[in-house]
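Last lecture ended with a question: if I hand you only a sequence, what can you say about the shape of the protein? Today we answer it with a concrete record. The protein is Restriction endonuclease. Below, first the input exactly as provided, then the predicted structure, then a couple of comments.
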Amino acid sequence: MAVRHETELYKPIKNFFEIRGYEIKSEVRHCDLVGMKQGEEEPLIVEMKKTFNLPLLLQGMERLKLSSNVYLAVERNRHKKGAHNQRWSEITALCRKIGVGLITVTHFKTKSPFVEILCEPSAFASSKPIVKTRQSRLVQEFKERSGDYNVGGSHGQKIVTSYREKALRVAHAMRDGTPMRPSVVRDLSGTSSAAAILQRNYYGWFERVSRGLYVLTPAGKEALEEYHYVIEGRL
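The predicted structure:
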């Protein structure tokens, strides 16, 4: 049973690693899937494509700058359609050579998908030095998100980042329409950067009505409805 979208690979892979003790979140700083495990500093990164191709390989090589624990994940077609599906030994050897792991996901009509690791990542095989500043930003973004509100492999979708979460908390604190000072919004929302979020107004959700006083715009009210599941997850 062939998958139609990369997003269909996300849930089986997420479940696979959650069983192994990872907390999983998707679309973190352009990575399809990121995981953190208690006691481990290196983040898990998985990049997904329906089939193995050069862009996926290049993505994996780029992610080795963020972590040595990087996997590439593709569908394994049971009907063996396509040239790549008949050359798993060669693809696995290539992944080992550059230091990334390889995961396949086989879908069935009447039973759960089967996730298989064909090879593990190898820090010794990779020649890519980890850029610690970029790794730190990835881990910080992961930790600042309250939950997994995206689907790995999505394209053209709005991503719930940690910044969007903070802006939503600020908007939720201002939902009754009363003009508020940034210090009051900060205390009500529990968001230390509330003043900067109000002043920057990146999403157009806030309006300054007089010196030091802000209200929620109609766009902000719409955002609270659109992202209600994020707010409910925080309450």
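Comments.
1. The mean pLDDT is 91.
2. Residues 7-144 form one domain.
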